[in-house]
Amino acid sequence: MSQYMDGTTSSSLYEVKLGREKFGGETHAYSVAYADDEIDEVLEQADKIIFNSAGQLARFGERAVARNVVRGLRVNPGISSSDFTLADPARPFSRLGEWENERIEAVIGDVSGFMIHNNCENTDFGLFDSLLSQVEERFGHFLQRLDWVSLGGGIHFTGEGYPLDALADRLKAFSDRFGVQVYLEPGEAAITKSTTLEVSVLDTLYNGKHLAIVDSSVEAHMLDLLIYRLSAKMKPNTGSHQFMVCGKSCLAGDIFGEFSFEAPLKVGDRLSIEDAAGYTMVKKNWFNGVKMPAIAIRQLNGDIELVKEFGYGDYVASLS
């Protein structure tokens, strides 16, 4: 991916170190709050540091100056695309960025850029355009005094049918209007449809519905499905035989979803959970001691390369 992207951003010390060491390029550091015992190490890794508040900027800004690290501030326009309060940066009493113009005005001379991250899985270009227009209206008098603006992630521009040319034109117009370098931080958009979770059927039951138990767990391996109450994706998902595909943990609601199949599922059948890259490897856990899926790469010629396996030692090390 480093062949196609200019660098990385982060939300913690460990992420900024990983970005610098493994990806290279321009490295941006951001955190909701930095601690005294980590800020110097963060600055060693970063080209830009984005502070979440005027207070953090006042506390650590001079250290950034001393290390020639460019300073930025997260600002919150109070609007977002999120349908989930849990993931809404504009939720009431949000801690994510500065809201008030007076507080921003007091520190605008100490930063050269803003981060404005208010999109969340936004597949609608029209909504993105509207949100950006509101940002321009609210913060335009600040934006014209800056050198760069990061619009964060959450813009699902790799979705099917997304108008990429319109997005590029809108970003260029924003850049030209305010004379700023524009950054995007593609997260899930960078790995859309890149990964599957391969599972096997261990048992089948009937309890008013046909159930299939697989050798995985939503709680342990695809936690966001539980958090946001979403169903997993499976293809082709056609046929007259419907099964509820369930995880093997003791959590009663450990359910991937209900899917259709051409034939009844049986023990040993292999299923592919689609689009499984986003927020899985970074959130996987050892709940119930359920075995962790191995990580493998399918090469362009079809060969499978095993990259990493997890065993009992990893489980023990995670606990003690």
From TrEMBL:
Q: Which GO terms describe its biological process?
A: lysine biosynthetic process via diaminopimelate; nor-spermidine biosynthetic process; spermidine biosynthetic process
- On the tree of life, the source organism's domain of life is Bacteria
Indicate whether Metal-binding appears among the record's keywords: no
Q: Which cofactor does it need?
A: pyridoxal 5'-phosphate
Per the UniProt entry, the Enzyme Commission number(s) are: 4.1.1.96
Family matches, as Gene3D superfamilies: Alanine racemase (3.20.20.10), Lyase, Ornithine Decarboxylase, Chain A, domain 1 (2.40.37.10)
SUPFAM superfamilies referenced in this protein's UniProt entry, alphabetically? Alanine racemase C-terminal domain-like, PLP-binding barrel
Keyword presence, ATP-binding: no
Q: Which family does this protein fall into?
A: Belongs to the Orn/Lys/Arg decarboxylase class-II family. NspC subfamily.
- Name of the protein in question: Carboxynorspermidine/carboxyspermidine decarboxylase
Q: State the species of origin.
A: Pseudochelatococcus contaminans
